[in-house]
Amino acid sequence: MDCPKFEDMPELREDECHVWWAALTHCAAWHTRLLNATESARHRSYRRPADRDRFTVGVALTRLVLGAHLGVPPDAVPIDRTCARCGAAHGRPRLATSAAIDFSVSHSGDAIALAITAGGGGGAARRVGLDVELMDPATATEAPVDVVLSAAEHLSYRRLDAAERPAAFFRYWVRKEAALKATGDGLAVPMTQLTMSAPDQPARLTGWQGRPGQPGLMSMHDLPARPGYLAALAFVGSDATVICHDAAEILNDQGSLSA
Hints:
CATH 3.90.470.20; 7 helices
């Protein structure tokens, strides 16, 4: 497969993070051609078509954007999914090259998003974590606050009106997922060990049990998302300017892969 030729692909500057937004409806049959053997096996493991399509769009978007920035065919982008703890292919995806680029993918409901950032200033690495969540009424009604909220967050949460609690819960959730993706810990670290700023305040990590220095190493952003969704972005290392893009053209233009 040839290198993607997206003439309008914006330049990724060192102090920027680009967030590409896609939808489940963007899924096309040709996207599966971009999956490698590991990704194809995971694709087949999903029982529900919507889950397969969400995964496919996430991989296709990642490979198309990274391929354009790296100047390589999208199916040749060297993505490593090895878990640092067990060695299985379900770890935090990363580039298996020396390129100073980090990325994070998230999907929920019919929303799919990719965050990509270059290395931080002065040669310092910047890692990014992205999370988007559909504010599902059923989940909000039975919100597992004891699994997500720290003791300090519980105090703020209990002071909220009942109508305010669902959105507040999801705001805490997306911020913590983004932070844990950025550090690479994932769900190996309980969310209750992290404390975030209040939901109505700008996103900020205020405490991490056992890691008192972590808040000083992380910056966070709440992202604009479509109605019914919340999203957050976290950086380990230097902060970055966040720029959002619509991925529809990239995912719909199969001709952009031609020679």
